[in-house]
Amino acid sequence: MRVFSLEHRWGSTSTVSTGASVDITEEVITVDFAVREVPSCFCQNKEQDGEAVWEDSCVEVFLKLPWGKEYLNFEFNSKGVCYAARGENRENRKEFSKSEYAKIIRKPSGVLEDGKFYRWMLSVEIPSILLGNIKDLRIVELEGNLYKCADLAPEPHWLTAFPINTPKPDFHRPEAFLPFIPFVDK
C-alpha cells in the first residue's frame, strides 16, 4: 500500500485537503480517498454514472498499463457517482458501458458537516477485468495519477498526487504519470 497527500496546483490555494491510499492485490486496485473542504469548495449535483462528475467535488484515478498508449480515467463525486473512459488522449475517449460501470465497487461515506468543513471519504475497487483481465495486478507496474477537483464549485480547485507541468489544469497528461507502487520483481 502507498499513501499520498495531494497537493494544490495551478495557483489553487483553497482550503481543501485530500489524502489517498492505493493498494494493489492480485485482482483489484483499491483506492481510498479522504477529503476535507470548506463549503465554498463543495458541490454535489450529479446523480448517474456517465455524468460530468468533475464539475462536482470529485476525486479521480487515472491508470496506465506499461504496454500501449491507452490509459483509463475513473472519476467520482462524493456520492460515488462515476465517469470512466479509456483512450490514448483527452479527445478520443471511449466511455464505459453500464455493465463496466457496475463492476466498479464504490463505498461512499456520505458527507459530514462540522460547521466549518465538509468531510467525506470514498473507497473504490477497480477489478482487473476492466484493465484487460490481467491475471495478477501485483506484477504489473501500473502508472497514473490521483486528482481532486471541483470545476463548478464556487471556489474551483485542482490537486494532484504527482506534479503536472502545464500552464492550466489538465489531468489528461500520461507523460506525467508515475508508478503508484514501485515495481519489485517477485
Q: Classify the fold: give the CATH topology.
A: Immunoglobulin-like
Q: Please tell me how large the radius of gyration is.
A: 16 Å
Order of helical and strand elements:
EEEEEEEEHEEEEEE
**Termini, distance in Å?**
16 Å
What is the percent of helical residues? under 10%
The chain-level mean pLDDT equals 92
**CATH C-level category:** Mainly Beta
Count up the domains: 1
Gross morphology is globular
Protein model, in words:
Strands 2, 5, 6, 7, 8, 12, 13 and 14 form an eight-stranded antiparallel β-sheet that branches. Strands 1, 3, 4, 9, 10 and 11 form a six-stranded antiparallel β-sheet that branches. This protein has one helix spanning 98-102; strands spanning 2-5, 7-8, 16-24, 28-37, 58-64, 71-77, 82-87, 93-95, 105-108, 112-113, 118-127, 143-149, 158-160, 178-179. The radius of gyration is 16 Å and the shape is globular. The chain has a single domain (2-179), classed as Immunoglobulin-like (Sandwich). Strand 7 (82-87) and strand 8 (93-95) form a beta hairpin. It is built from one helix and 14 strands; from the N terminus they run ββββββββαββββββ. The protein has 186 residues and is mostly beta strands.
